[in-house]
Amino acid sequence: MHTNHFARKLFLAAPLCLFAVGCGGDPMMDGSMTGEGATEAAAPAAPEDAALGTSEQGIGLGGTYWWGTSANGLTSTTIGTATNRTCFLRGIRGNLKGTSWAGAGVFQYAGNWEIFINQSNSKALRTDVQCINTATNRTPEVSWYDGQAAKLLGAVTSARRCFLTQVEAAGGFTANTDYARVWNDGYNWYLGGNLGAAGGARARCVDVPQDAGGWQWIAGNPGTFTHNLAYDPGGVACMLSGIGGNFSTSNYDDGVTIDYNAGTRYWEMTVSNSKRGWGNCVK
Questions:
Q1: Which of 96, 131, 210, 249 has its CA at 20 to 30 Å from residue 104's CA atom?
Q2: Residue 28: CB partners within 8 Å, gap ≥ 6?
Q3: Cβ distance 279 to 214 under 8 Å?
Q4: Which residues, 6+ apart, have CB-to-CB distance to 160 below 8 Å?
Q5: What is the pLDDT of residues 15-63, one digit of tens each?
Q6: Which of 242, 279, 229, 237 is nearest to 62 (CA)?
Q7: What is the C-alpha radius of gyration for the chain, rounded to an integer number of angstroms?
Q8: Cα distance between residue 267 and residue 258, in whole Å
Q9: Is 154 exposed, middle or buried (0-12, 13-18, 19+ CB in 10 A)?
Q10: Chain-centre distance for alpha carbon 268
């Protein structure tokens, strides 16, 4: 079963830690980047090209992070407590294509959040994560895989908001028509999608007082464009509620990502080469 296959890789491997701080937005992914070591004594050294960046927007959120590598196996690092704090995907870039499972995103472990890449493709893969300072009515993480019916995340309430936490693939996310996303029908929240081969996604929900809008953007092929999401006068966060397309390019800048532009005070979504993204903002 897909879930057990991935869980064994994810939770039985020792975390690898390398931490580097960036200012003024996301640093560029660079294989030569170094940082202050944070490796646990029992853990092996992090891959040379694994890097973690973090930046704060000064809007009272719980941290913005990225992690990327072309190294095989599970690489991960702790990005802070899960107490009164919830983390979601804000980007997937690079290659999910391979003969075995690849995955990226964020998960809870031992009371903390861990950002991770897990692959055996020796290709560039990057994930971006946004944390928010609330755990009110946080739901358990739910998994959905190709061929399954949409999975129930929970009932619609006035404050419940749901987002992706991970994506996984072993042949899926290699066609423009492939996608996974969360949505609600006015009664319930669901996680589902359509994939032409093995793959899936994980998601959870948490209470946030206000919805600040939702968008879907699709890139031409070839091409990359960036479009505004919500204006942020303070206290707004935007995360991914869905991704789709062909993630088979070994390029840290090829994918779907949401970033905050301090110069314009807008959250923005960037999509590349026929990929699509669903983004929702909360405040």
A1: 210
A2: none
A3: yes
A4: 137, 154, 189, 205, 206, 207
A5: 333 322 222 333 223 332 222 222 233 333 444 555 555 544 433 578 9
A6: 237
A7: 17
A8: 7
A9: middle
A10: 15
